[in-house]
Amino acid sequence: MKRSVLGENELPRSWYNIAADLPEPLRPPLDPGTGKPIGPEQLAAIFPMPLLEQEMSAEREIAIPEPVLDVYAMWRPTPLIRAVRLEQHLGTPAKIFYKYEGASPPGSHKPNTAVAQAYYNKISGIERLATETGAGQWGSALAFACSLFDMALKVYMVRVSYEQKPYRRSLIQTWGGEIVPSPSPDTPAGRQVLEATPDSPGSLGIAISEAVQDAAHRDDTNYSLGSVLNHVLLHQTVIGLEAQRQFRDFGLEPDVVIGCVGGGSNFGGIALPYVREKIHGKPLRAIAVEPEACPSITRGHYHYDFGDTAQTTPLMAMHTLGHSFVPPGIHAGGLRYHGMAPLISHLVELDLVEPQAPAQLDCFAAAVTFARTEGVIPAPETAHAVQAAIAEAERCKREGSEETILFGFSGHGFFDMSAYDAYFAEKLTNYQLPEDALARAWEAIRELPKP
Fold first, then answer.
1. Phi, psi (5° rounding) for residue 296?
2. Second label for 128, Cα 20 to 30 Å away, from 255, 262, 285, 352?
3. Spatial contact of 178 and 155, defined as CB atoms under 8 Å apart
4. pLDDT > 60? residue 92
5. Where are the domains of the chain?
6. Distance between alpha carbon 178 and the CA centroid of its chain, in Å?
7. Looking at the domain that runs over 41-64+110-226, which CATH code has it been given?
8. pLDDT digits (tens, 9 = 90+) for 383-425
9. 299 close to 357: Cβ distance less than 8 angstroms
10. What is the C-alpha separation between 387 and 291, in angstroms, rounded?
11. Is the pLDDT of residue 142 over 80?
12. What is the mean pLDDT of the chain?
């Protein structure tokens, strides 16, 4: 048996909220002016109340609305596939499985939360959303969702990715979204960056500032975020919940669960249902793989910080490189965020999740190996999970260990072929960030509160 494909009637009916099982509660977001915890009412200007209730909820299960399930059924449940040819190529005794999220119309895991967020905003009377996007996976997913719920959308796309990935721009426009490169002249935050650094490559922190300011200045508009926040990770847990059901078809359970991680949504989706099992005593490993060029967990600080460059968000307890940090223009644009989801950061602090940060060239080499054995071309972000899965399989070969490895295949790379062109032309390099660059960004947050 090489794959498990569930029927539409086997879709999870609820999302899983790990807040109910945490051995220690999350640190609350803080008001940057008072330093005191904030409540839902302080975020109601840019988020609908149903999402804010989910953000703060401690309920273990939150029902998925029928209109959201109806859209999910366009591509969910997604297949769980055993990578038999990759195993044979590596000569490993390990069993390698991947959960294929490239089956969605936009080609990634992002619609799992985009559809939910569009729905909750629509029933709350919102007509338009504003958002940021790194590689364009989130922007295209939200454009897809907004088209289904007849909503307008403005996307601020990190400039370096805007230039690297023209076809993701085309996806957003095809589904009716308006898109501009960030930093842009359309917002105060964008104009400030352009004035200081006209050739700025942009960052997710800058693009978030622009989208938040856009939403805050229009009554018909809310802000929508594709990662980091609790409710976003919550919606993604359909991935891991499906995988748990599908592994029963194989008579197996994973020993290692792997996901790439930038803000936290993909890793949270595949891993959180399994981290619950680890909390309750199961001896499994959960590996979060971030890029060497933007190592918020592996080289950042666990500290309160702003979620954006212009300091418009509340303070969040997270692993961070500092809100002023602008990562190098790697092709894994969806992983170029200065901070990590508070929830994932908390799990790292509790030693429930282990981080890794491989080099860009190693990730592309692993992606090519995967494509030449399994046939599917991974997105550059997904390539980080592929690299870690191969490294674990090679460890099993050295140790003679027959472990079961699961990784989240967060999206295909069919719109990222310029990255592969650059790789084969030997134009890509590894980025080992100098300590002084990290130190400068750290100085900007040193005086902020500690968790």
1. -65, -35
2. 262
3. yes
4. yes
5. 41-64+110-226, 72-107+232-443
6. 22
7. 3.40.50.1100
8. 999 999 999 999 999 999 999 999 999 999 998 898 899 999 9
9. yes
10. 11
11. yes
12. 94
Read off the pLDDT of residues 112-133 as tens digits, 9 standing for 90 and up.
Answer: 999 999 999 999 999 999 999 9
Percent of the chain at pLDDT > 90 equals 81
- Per the listing, tokens 């602090």 go with 349
Q: List the structure tokens of 331.
A: 């092709």
* 76 secondary structure, DSSP code: P
Of 89, 44, 50, 40, which is closest to residue 368 (Cα–Cα)?
89
Say which DSSP state 83 is in: -
Q: Where are the alpha helices (DSSP H) in 217-296?
A: 230-236, 238-250, 265-279
The CA-based dihedral angle spanning residues 123, 129, 135, 141, taken in that order and rounded to the nearest 10 degrees: 30
* Among 60, 40, 42, 59, residue whose Cα is nearest residue 50: 40
Phi, psi torsion values for 349, nearest 5 degrees = -60, -30
H or E element at residue 139: helix 137-148
Of the listed ranges 12-26, 321-335, 355-369, the least confidently predicted one is 321-335
List the one residue out of 84, 126, 337, 324 whose CA is nearest residue 215: 126
Q: CA 445: distance to chain centroid? A: 23
Question: Which CATH number fits the domain 72-107+232-443, given the four candidates 3.40.50.1100, 3.40.50.2020, 3.40.80.10, 3.40.50.970?
Answer: 3.40.50.1100
Strands 3-4 and 80-82: antiparallel
SS3 assignment, position 59: coil
Find all residues with CB under 8 Å of 117, minimum gap 6, and list them: 51, 129, 142, 145, 224, 232, 235
CA dihedral defined by 103, 104, 106, 111, rounded to 10 degrees? -140
Short-list 185, 192, 207, 89, CA closest to 139: 207
What's the confidence (pLDDT) of residue 431?
Answer: 82
Assess whether the region 41-64+110-226 and the region 72-107+232-443 belong to the same CATH fold: yes
Q: Which of 57-61, 89-93, 204-208, 284-288 has the lowest mean pLDDT?
A: 204-208
155-194 pLDDT, tens digit each: 999 998 898 888 889 999 999 999 999 999 999 999 999 9
